[in-house]
Amino acid sequence: MYGKANPGQVENYVEMSVNLDQARSVSLKIQTKMLEVTHEVLENGVVRKQR
Predict the structure, then answer these.
(1) Tell me: the pLDDT tens digits for 36-49?
(2) What is the pLDDT of residues 9-33, one digit of tens each?
(3) Within a 10 A sphere around the Cβ of 42, how many other Cβ atoms?
(4) In what order do the strands lie in the sheet with 46-50?
(5) CB atoms closer than 10 angstroms to residue 43
(6) How far apart are CA 39 and CA 41, in angstroms?
(7) Rounded Cα–Cα distance for residues 16 and 39 (Å)
(8) How far, in Å, CA of 13 to CA of 2, rounded?
(9) Greatest CA span in the chain, whole angstroms?
């Protein structure tokens, strides 16, 4: 993961990864519903969720 959010299209759906560490460092708030549909979430340097 390189940015705060990396969207990409895979077949007929959108896949997104979120780096919460970077988002928080710039006071960016990401809604829970968006986090629920992300492919992977990086938090405290560890991938917390991966689909």
Answers:
(1) 888 889 999 998 87
(2) 557 777 788 999 999 999 999 998 8
(3) 20
(4) 5-10, 13-19, 40-43, 46-50
(5) 15
(6) 7
(7) 5
(8) 21
(9) 32
